[in-house]
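haha ok so turns out i had the wrong file open the whole time. this is the CORRECT one, sorry everyone. sequence first:
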Amino acid sequence: MDTSLDLDSFGLVCLAGVLGGAIGLEREIADKPAGLRTHIFVASGAALLVLLAEGAMDFFQQQNADRQIAADPIRVIQAIVVGISFLGAGTIVHHRGNQVEGLTTAASIFLTAGIGIAVAFDRIWLAVEVTGFALVVLVVVSFVQHRLLGKNPDAASVAGAEGDSE
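then structure:
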């Protein structure tokens, strides 16, 4: 067992968690259903699963050196997307009168998983830039909606809005 590889992987999982936590902190401050801890776990979990899948391939290749093992890393990403979609769906609430709440939080959870995947694939700068972009969207667009357009960022109409005004 390579301890330095585990420490490197742990560092990536922690970095993913920090980036996810930045988005989660904004959701927490906005008093949304999925906040800091959820976003940390989503990003860290996504990174961990990608790293473990990579390690699993190496492990099984060593165990069965005489066999050719084919890997499909897309399957791991698909599994993460399915799981995160289920989690995100749980944050969406439909109220009477065509009001929907939680769509932006669900989308932020989805994006946070992508950030974790990017970190695991060693696309650190991409993950950092997407995190920054997400924070700009969450903070600036909310400000524009609330202050300049007079819209309540806490409610979205199913019929008339994109649902991102949470």
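Helices lie at 3-29, 36-63, 73-89, 103-120, 124-148.
again sry for the mixup
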